[in-house]
Amino acid sequence: MDIIRAFEKSLGEYEGIQKSKHWKKYNTRRHLYTLANLENFRNNQLSEGLDQTFPPETQREIYHQLIADVGEQYVRENLDDKNVGNGRHCFVEDGLVVDGGQNYIIKWLYDLEATVFAQKEIRLVCEIGGGYGALAQKIYSRFGGNIILIDLPEANVLSSYYLSKNFPKAKFLLCDEIEGRTITKEHVEEYDFIIIPPWYKLAEDVTVDLFINTRSMMEMNINVIKQYLALIQSHVAEGGFFYNLNRYQKISVGYPIKLSKYPYDQKWNVVLSKPAWRQRDHHLLLTRRTGRRRGDIKKELRRIGKIGEEFILKPKSLMGKLWYGFKNTMNRFRYQYF
């Protein structure tokens, strides 16, 4: 596996539609992506925008709340014993690395175990926009299986490094070894981790038991979100799941991205829907695929939209309201807003 060669190949293939205003803000440091710098990627700016950091007192607060909510044994079973990437905002307790950002991920893992892994055999997971690979690392550590990660080159180079250091015996497939930009069923069966940019495709016979997106669709252009939902809805197994945790509304791409407007089709049933843990402006929506167009997703999206109104800051003056309405109308027209 040649991480840097795969990174450079994917840079040469970059599709402009994937570069949202948000992404451009955080990814202007291509000259820093070297093997030497990857060793410290969590403290030299490479993971900025992909990694949560907290001051020490907040770290401990999150840790103790996590223990209270899911139990000390579960937390300790899912802490790491090494600090890959040399994150600065961690502390060690009894030989285990406690990381505020990864404490959130342990909570997501706990929810996934109770609502997905306990209900269905999960053989193939596909995580979209998984950052440096922390959730994938915890899923593989606990459940094994096969994992596809789809993200932009600047994230894929970090997840390739992070996961390979955590699992040196696992088999990895990166984009520099893929012909035709297509992931086949044979690839899935042979490799533990497949890490690709979004312009690579899944063959028609590749079906995914669990799709995941956490806190990154809200930072994508609208047409990219449409592409991802089309991918999910064409490759999810019947009875498969989509775990979606994103902000009710975010505007870092230059216009509003609302969770309630994600283009789900009607073949989804809601399994779990609630405000996210310790992030009340985010929502967790877990859905399960049904073969009939009778899912309850549309009703739930309307409910989420109403909840989300609490977190949308609107102007109070008449002129401000008129300008806000005009701007949103133009954005919908300009970007074909769902």
Summarize the structure in short.
The chain is of the alpha/beta class and 338 residues long.
Key structural traits:
338 residues; alpha/beta; eight-stranded mixed beta sheet
Describe the structure.
The protein is of the alpha/beta class. The chain folds into 2 domains: 1-123 and 131-175, no CATH class; 215-338. It is built from 12 helices and 14 strands. The protein has helices spanning 3-12, 21-26, 35-38, 56-70, 72-77, 100-117, 134-143, 153-166, 185-190, 222-235, 297-308, 318-335, and strands at 90-93, 96-99, 124-128, 146-150, 172-174, 182-183, 193-196, 201-202, 208-214, 236-247, 249-250, 257-258, 268-276, 279-289. It has an 8-stranded mixed beta sheet, with helices on both faces. A two-stranded antiparallel sheet has the order 1-2. β13 (268-276) and β14 form a beta hairpin. α4 (56-70) runs parallel beside α6 (100-117) and α6 crosses α7. The radius of gyration is 20 Å and the shape is globular. The two termini are 39 Å apart. Mean pLDDT is 89; it is low at 331-338.
The CA-CA distance between the termini, in Å, is 39 Å
Note the overall shape: globular
Number of strands: 14
Low-confidence stretches: 331-338
Strand content: 15-25%
- Level of helix content? 25-40%
What structural category do the secondary elements indicate? alpha/beta
Give the overall pLDDT as a whole number.
89
